[in-house]
Amino acid sequence: MRTGETFYRMKISPAQKQTRTLVQAAAAVCEDKKGLNTRILALDPADSGLSDFFLVTSATNERQAVTIADEIELRLKRDFGVYPNSVEGRRHGEWILLDYVDFVVHVFLSERRAFYDIERLRKSARPLTPEEFDAELKAELAQKTLAARTKAPVKARAASARPAAKAKKLAKRPAAAKKPAKKAAPRRKTAVAKKKVARPSAKKIKRSR
After folding, report:
1. Domain span at residue 56?
2. Are 52 and 103 in contact (CB under 8 A)?
């Protein structure tokens, strides 16, 4: 199975993506502080119990181990506001454990790491280098971006097709028959004809005198 094949088959929830971002930041601290043979174990859900990842790195001496653990705790608190649920082994510096619930950081002295061989105990886990882990995160982001870009033109085409379909539907409707316009009724003449008043003749006037 190629690296990342299982990753592509999984659906990553926002919470899991946040966990991966925190693991990535912690792994970057290990690289910055010269941690040796840093590995990220992607734990099998059936075998992992509560955690999703183990971050394992080695230090050459106790001071370096404490420095790596302190810097991881500081950076996750400063950049993400995340605190470890518990911290163990800081006093001796041989095996420092930072429990962030969804992932656990193990900072070993090289000889202690070889003795406990935590990678061998987690046979079902998928070991990844920080570079491989980063590549998976970038690939997952690229897939989401591509999916979003693919959906956008489909939505745009669907939106533009709606007015056209509506216009086509309206064109198919039979045109309503136009009713003949009613002729206006002729107006009645309201003017009353003036009656002619007969004027008395001149002869009738003379006789009456």
Report:
1. 16-134
2. yes
